[in-house]
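Work package 3, deliverable 3.1, input record:
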Amino acid sequence: MSTATSPQIIELGAMRRICSGCSLRELCLPAGLDSEAISALDEFVQKKQDLHVQELAYRAGDIASNIYAVRLGSFKSYRLRENGDVQIVGIHLPGELFGLDALASEQRQIYTEALEKSNVCALPVADLERLSRQIPAIGRQMMRLMARELNSSYEEHELLANDTALTRVAKFIWRYVQRRKQVGLQTRQFDIAISRQDLANYLGLQVETVSRAFRELRDRKVITASRSKLEILDHAALQALIRSE
Amino acid sequence: MSTATSPQIIELGAMRRICSGCSLRELCLPAGLDSEAISALDEFVQKKQDLHVQELAYRAGDIASNIYAVRLGSFKSYRLRENGDVQIVGIHLPGELFGLDALASEQRQIYTEALEKSNVCALPVADLERLSRQIPAIGRQMMRLMARELNSSYEEHELLANDTALTRVAKFIWRYVQRRKQVGLQTRQFDIAISRQDLANYLGLQVETVSRAFRELRDRKVITASRSKLEILDHAALQALIRSE
DNA sequence: CGGTAGCTTGACAACTGTCAATCTTGGTGG
DNA sequence: CCACCAAGATTGACAGTTGTCAAGCTACCG
């Protein structure tokens, strides 16, 4: 499981090209790094891992040994409330990292589960620390990504604190589309692996309320939606909905 | 404003003892660092800064050059919504850091304002990066603190997504007390500089609703509260309120 | 000591939650 | 390959918590 470990020196041979050749390298951990740094990363991003629907990347209480980058598919991160209910606190799409909380404590605080057949890169935290000592840019990039997480948690706070059900759903769809655009995925018509139930949970609403919001958006000819298919009919109207708030 | 800058080597002389002598050193950035590392930190934590009520540590759009540690007082961080309304996204107490989002982008995304007469340490980000290159433990500690922020943002998500008004207020008070306990402050009776209006905003409620929640807690003999004075009469009952939820 | 900002209280409205029933759709097995 | 089943999604009716509006109260600042 652990690599041969020549503690401090990283040999820059034997390219595995995992990051170098990845279409997400401009957005993922390697973003902004020079080719030498990326080559160093390649050494450590060894584990590509497939996960099937509902498979857990990790569960609360696990020793936090890796951080993950989504290559394909999507994930939900959730906590268990006192009463045992699930509270979804994050959705992860291709090109995004999850499991960053690993850097706080030995034990994971949350569960992260695949919403569909997915594929991730796993980066051992220990290697990452060693690596960022050797190549400061990687440490800086980690910080930047965590800080970005923090900023988006502020946006979530805003959404949960003040927005109506319709606005929450509209914002979610809008941001979802923006995130897809980031990584060059279709933005007009696509699948969302997130169930209405999960979406409701994430947005702090009931399923029925989410369903009604979807109906409203359908009635207004902003989207069409069936189960997991989603089509944006009117990007402008969607954006207007959000801005008007 | 900027120090003399001998780029890579930090001289460990001329102790300023800012961190070494600080009562918060076990909880703040120096937590877990050895005395040598703390001495190095001392070199850079040069600016202690007083802020009066309503004074801004920084505003959105500013170049993010420092991170801050609260020594005394308290702060609120907020965003401006599309419509110009304030959305408070964080409250900062003694021993806590704020402005960590600085590590994501050049420009600040949020405003942070003193809720009362306060005092902070300011750490130049540039120095911090140089320092963590020299002393890896400091970089690691930064990561740990950011990851802790992330975890507490999950708790906030949970609160905003599902809790009733009463539970939100109870949880806020409970966590507020726990945070005070951390740094050895009074937990039975104390001042909260946060107005009902700000508290409501932060918790995603209306002032009237918060006021009613306080009344409920008063009626149940859990607390006494007037303006900014707060007394916890029944810690157990408060905790029970949260767990039952 | 007075004014004013902040807090509290009450009455009512509205949005969202709850409960119950029906409809769709995707997956399974004959 | 088709039909059926079950889980998920939608819809409707109603209830409840919180928001809104309006008034009055308090306490702090000058």
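Chain B touches chain A through 49 residues (CB under 8 Å).
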